[in-house]
Amino acid sequence: MTDIATMPQPVSFGRRLKRFMADRPLIPLIILLIILVVILQILRPGIVNERWLANTAKFAIPLAILAGCQTMTMLTGGIDLSVGTVATMSAFIMATQIVNQDPTVAFLLAMLPAVLIGFVNGIGVGVFRVHPLIMTLGTSLIGTGFLQVYQRTVIASGAKIPDFLNWLGTGLTYGFPNALLLFVPVAVLIVFMLNRTGFGRLLYAVGDNERAARLSGVRYWQVITALYVLSSLLAGITGLLYIGLIKAPSLSLAEPLVLPSVAAAVIGGTSIFGGRGGYMGTIIGALILTVLTTLLTILQMPEGGRRILFGFIVLFVTAAYLRIVEDR
Amino acid sequence: MTTNPLLDATGVAKNYGAVAALRNASLSVLPGEVHALMGANGAGKSTLVKILTGAINADAGRILIRGKQLDVRSPADARRAGLLPVYQEPSLIPDLDVLSNLRLTGTPIEPFRAWVRELGIPNLDIRDTARDIPLAILRVLDLARALAVEPDVLLLDEMTAALPANLAEKVLEVVRRQGDAGRSVIFISHRFVEISALCDRATVLRDGSTVGVVDIEPGIEERIVEMMLGTRIEKTRVAARSANDVGTVGGRNPRLSVRNLQLGTKLNDVSFDLANGEVVGVFALEGQGQDELFAALAGSIRPTGGTIEVDGAPAKFSHPSDAVQAGIAYVPGDRTEALAMQRSVRENIALPFSAGLRKWGPIRMRREQVVVSGVIGRLQIDTRVLGEVQRLSGGNQQKVTIARWIAANARTILCFDPTRGIDVGTKQEIYKLLRELAGQGKSVLFYTSEMEEVQRVCDRVIVIFGGRVVDTFPVEDADEPTLMRAAYGLPRGARADVGILADVRPASDAEAAS
To answer: Are the beta carbons of B416 and B330 closer than 8 angstroms?
Structure first.
């Protein structure tokens, strides 16, 4: 009797915990986030309050949307390094065009380069099979170049941040950042799209096994083109949000967000090889990175030391997370 | 049985999490013996093999080699102990030439060359890059590489699976002689003809345990099948045939009509019809153009000449989606080519639903669920392991590749060797399924590398040799000698015994065919 009773037991607590985590990859991420917040509170008692939460959300949101672009492209085995340039371009164009133009026109003008760059990325990756890393890096450089040329033509007219973007970027309503009004629908849309629409399914399928998708009648270039246009559009919108937050149009506005956006997606459990991942993890990944940045800021280290530490922590977290989640 | 076993494994167990891949496996191999290791998919064959060759470590059990306890912790350990595997996947590094590959493993060159010649490949250039060598030849090279270091125990996993008949025969001959030379071979195969021709004894696994060790003698197949399957499946011929024969075969317009199809040097003037409600078999030796024929019909490559008509209307396929649109689905023989391995069974089955641009919108989850669980039930896909398709057994994976097109209601299914390397039970189910589909008025084009499948499944057979259709006959006439002769491009008429079991075969025959 005892033999039979003990037979299914050799699974240790550690193993069971691991399997539990593997089935619910979000849980270890949330735990990590909470640990970071607790550390922050211990180091600086009282820092975690309503204002801090709203502030963190405000800075995490642009990062989370750009990381959404990375999540979607990474699901197909790609990456979109042009998001920074695209966001900068639409922000800069918006801020300069709003001076003389109707807001709608300015908005459309601001989104134009986003659509164009996305389309070129899509055709390059989907039809000509250029590696996404190279393709998006290339269009990103081209975009930056164009922006510099454009800057000279508008130098006289000056720039201003539209009130609406100001409100959206920094405003609070009942203590909640207004940016949530943009972010919640976007996030819901992305999650819904990935899980419940044909297009979302195809992103996973194409990234997992392109040949299989092809044999099932999927035309790769269509999926990829639509994907990169969508990614660019999201990046453009993020640019508008970000200019409302930063309030200083520059030629490298959103550039510092590019690599963190990749990191957020990876920390969130999306595989850079495609076919695996999701947006919920990415959102938490973006929050983790934002909290981590605050944490390192209050440590009052020199900038260099802070970066070194940041890099090490990101590497460590990702490696640890993959060990936990990948059940063999 | 007074001789001591060369290899003696007892009580081997291995768990993956809660799943026991092996519970209590034992295997005992005598010197000079060719020993078959058999079992349905998921019975634990591969796990046992991996443990014996040091690729993974067992949780429990004892492995003796020549009576000495051995701790095989890595493939290198196994090699030192004289145990050498030849796996199903070719193991040469694709970007190196054969010579560099040999140096890499420290294989003596001259014995390797001798074995390659012996195995029926007279003109191999060892400076060739492995990538450029056809799969079948690569597998033979793997075998030659293993033979060249003269292992005491050679472990062959589905060695003949991708081989054309002429090479397979050479391989079997060489393997048999290994036994005569006092070395042992562990031979894993699903093909009874080979096992009965080759092996002395067989160890049968079921659900991770050894359920029996039998001497191979005439009529033992039934017992082995019984042991492999427990009491689950009775071996019957496909019964639905008679009901279907009354069907629409041969009537009116053919579903698919191929005329003078040309594809470079691979296909030449191929013409045939496929009617609704018909299963047409394609039988050919390896590399006779059947791959290209299927790829052209599936829209993967464009033919250089000839026409394909679907329901009487000419069709030009420039992408597989064109073929899918026309209701023609291609099920490749290689499951890794057809499945998104990290995705769920459901997503894999529902994949064609979302393919078209107009179907990118929201999915009706409830309806999809109904359709998917319908085909899962119909094909009896074992979905106990939920989640990723890669966790399913090979047979269940193969079912998913077919289930997808049944769910999508494809009218024509092009099955390319769908039973390669899967267990007997699943094979039977697939035969039955294909007959059922035909019974519902669907049409199936079925390439197989196993002759007995032709009789089990097909209404008609077309035989391809050298890129041409050399013969077409109804299944009643398609006995094994006839098929074999046709596949070698020999004319019908003068008969002689040809086949894997035929003892004496003039070697020139095989050479001429390759």
So the answer is: yes
